[in-house]
Amino acid sequence: MSEASTRRKRIFSGMQPSGEAHLGNYLGALRPWVRLQDEYDCVFCIVDQHAVTAGGDPSKMPANVIDLTVSYLAVGLDPERSIIFVQSDVQEHTELAWLFNAVTPVGDLERMTQYKDKSQYFESIPAGILNYPILQAADILLYKADAVPVGEDQRQHLELTRDIARKFNAAYGETFPETDALIDKDVGRILGLDGKAKMSKSLGNTVGILAEESEVWERVRTAVTDPQRIKRSDAGRPDVCNVFTLHGHFTDKAKQAEIGSECRSAEIGCVECKKILSGNITDAFGPYRERAAYYRSKPDAVRSILVDGATRARAIAEETMIEVRDKMGLDWPSFFD
């Protein structure tokens, strides 16, 4: 019986290290990941090599990696049940990405929506922006992941990953699975506090999941609400208010319904509505802040988790690359066998 038929299905996912996680990271990725640990063999990565394509201050990268690791552990990713590691600690990621260039047409990369979106911000487009999806495909296929939890904005990249797997298999023999998408339809796209774009630190529209009460309020109070509600006495439209949408994740249904009704009748103002949301967010993440404080006080434990995770990840990656090199003829010592 093959290993694939005896092991649990495997998932891979990762997040760029930009510091502590925010609400969008939690609702769209971290919370679903925690649940998936019950069903899958999970490989969770801190994708620092992806992060370099965005530029930024290199001196902040190590701290950002540790902050994100603490966020992973605080929300319940379990190093006993999952592999948690840093991408740059497993060099096979970039090796496989380079080899995938051999089967990936440039036109496929240029059609990626995220490439088109990001390239407009560069006078001279770095090759890393174009090749980003190839490294992403290598991340996934290096572990022969059966599935990947993704948002709608990543579906196109996953389809490219599946296409790369098909092309490689056709050229060199059956090697990689066509990885499936796992989409949490109950979450959807989490908008930032501006109510316009996806929650992102680069846009400054986030709320950190490990933020203290005062910081949560300072962020939530800036959130954009119904633009047509100018005065406190104006009737609100909760259905178009992003603050009300966030209540759906942190406020019980009965209270949310009450807030919606009182908003429509102008019985509650936007400031009061935001204060309720801010309090609920603070309460919801209280246990996570406690766990984060524990891990921050145990830096050697965090280091050990990442070192052990890299060792476990590398064992899988090395096995895959032995197979890949052999099939691509990159095993010259075999000439003498």
Provide structural commentary.
This protein has 337 residues and is mainly alpha-helical. It folds into two domains: 3-187 and 299-336, HUPs (Rossmann fold, 3-Layer(aba) Sandwich); 212-284, Tyrosyl-Transfer RNA Synthetase. The protein has 15 helices and five strands. The chain has helices spanning 3-6, 23-36, 48-51, 61-75, 92-100, 106-110, 113-119, 127-141, 155-172, 213-220, 242-250, 253-264, 270-284, 286-296, 299-327, and strands spanning 10-15, 41-46, 82-86, 147-149, 180-182. Strands 1-2-3 form a three-stranded parallel sheet. A two-stranded parallel sheet has the order 4-5. Helix 9 (155-172) links the parallel strand 4 (147-149) and strand 5. The radius of gyration is 22 Å and the shape is elongated. The two termini are 28 Å apart. The mean pLDDT is 93.
Residue share in β-strands: 5-15%
Count of discrete domains? 2
Overall, the morphology is: elongated
Strand order of the largest sheet: 1-2-3
Straight-line distance between termini: 28 Å
Rounded to an integer in angstroms, the radius of gyration calculated over CA atoms is 22 Å
CATH class of the largest domain: Alpha Beta
Q: What's the CATH topology name of the largest domain?
A: Rossmann fold
Arithmetic mean pLDDT: 93
Instruction: Please describe the biggest sheet, giving its number of strands, its sense, and whether it closes into a barrel.
Output: 3 strands, parallel
CATH homologous superfamily of the largest domain?
A: HUPs
The SSE string, one letter per element, is: HEHEHHEHHHHEHEHHHHHH
Number of strands: 5
Given helix and strand content, the structural type is mainly alpha
Family: Belongs to the class-I aminoacyl-tRNA synthetase family.
InterPro entries: aa-tRNA-synth_Ic (IPR002305), Rossmann-like_a/b/a_fold (IPR014729), Trp-tRNA-ligase (IPR002306), Trp-tRNA-ligase_bac-type (IPR024109), Trp-tRNA_synthetase (IPR050203)
Keywords: Aminoacyl-tRNA synthetase, ATP-binding, Ligase, Nucleotide-binding, Protein biosynthesis
EC number: 6.1.1.2
